[in-house]
């Protein structure tokens, strides 16, 4: 089996498991809000105690879900690109746009997570501090890699077009 087909299958499985996880987490949040329990936010890893339905309790969870949905969308774009690449459509405009968008979304995720961690730590723990974990450090690197990959594919598309004209 070709590596791109294996990658395509892994991305498909990851996408569907991630989607199920986001919606299960949404369901658990509803139950925790109803039972007034303490839960963790996706991507942010901060514990929040839901003792009321005030805005301070709801906004952090919604921001966590927004980050999770952005990540899910970036994986959906990666899934679409893997499908195009497995079909032999290597240098299409759609693949180039998807790679660039994935890169931008990963950078947005990193800054969103960093901002949320600073804000939530300040609001809920009354501490001004920063936790640098692997996701905050690796997401921008992956994002920049995908942006660079889109530029490489764009250049390869131009070269392919020039080669077709000379033949």
From TrEMBL:
What Pfam families does its record include?
DUF2975
Transmembrane region(s): 12-34, 58-78, 99-124, 130-149
Q: Does the keyword Acetylation belong to this entry?
A: no
**The keyword tRNA processing belongs to this UniProt entry's keyword annotation:** no
Which residues lie in coiled coils?
none
- Known InterPro entries for this protein? DUF2975
- What's in the keyword line of the UniProt record? Membrane, Transmembrane, Transmembrane helix
Q: Which domain of life is it from?
A: Bacteria
What is the designated name of this protein?
A: DUF2975 domain-containing protein
Q: Which organism is it from?
A: Aquimarina spongiae
Species classification: Bacteria, Pseudomonadati, Bacteroidota, Flavobacteriia, Flavobacteriales
């Amino acid at each position: 089996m070709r590596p791109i087909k294996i990658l395509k299958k892994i991305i498909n499985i990851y996408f569907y498991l991630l989607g199920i996880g986001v919606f299960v987490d949404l369901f658990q949040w509803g139950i925790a809000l109803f039972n007034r329990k303490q839960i963790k936010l996706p991507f942010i890893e901060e514990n929040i105690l839901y003792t009321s339905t005030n805005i301070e309790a709801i906004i952090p969870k919604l921001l966590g879900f927004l980050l999770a949905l952005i990540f899910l969308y970036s994986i959906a774009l990666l899934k679409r690109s893997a499908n195009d690449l497995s079909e032999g459509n290597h240098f299409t405009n759609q693949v180039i746009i998807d790679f660039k968008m994935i890169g931008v979304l990963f950078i947005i995720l990193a800054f969103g997570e960093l901002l949320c961690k600073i804000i939530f730590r300040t609001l809920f723990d009354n501490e001004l501090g920063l936790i640098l974990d692997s996701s905050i450090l690796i997401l921008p690197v992956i994002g920049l890699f995908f942006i660079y990959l889109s530029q490489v594919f764009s250049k390869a598309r131009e070269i392919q077009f020039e080669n077709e004209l000379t033949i």
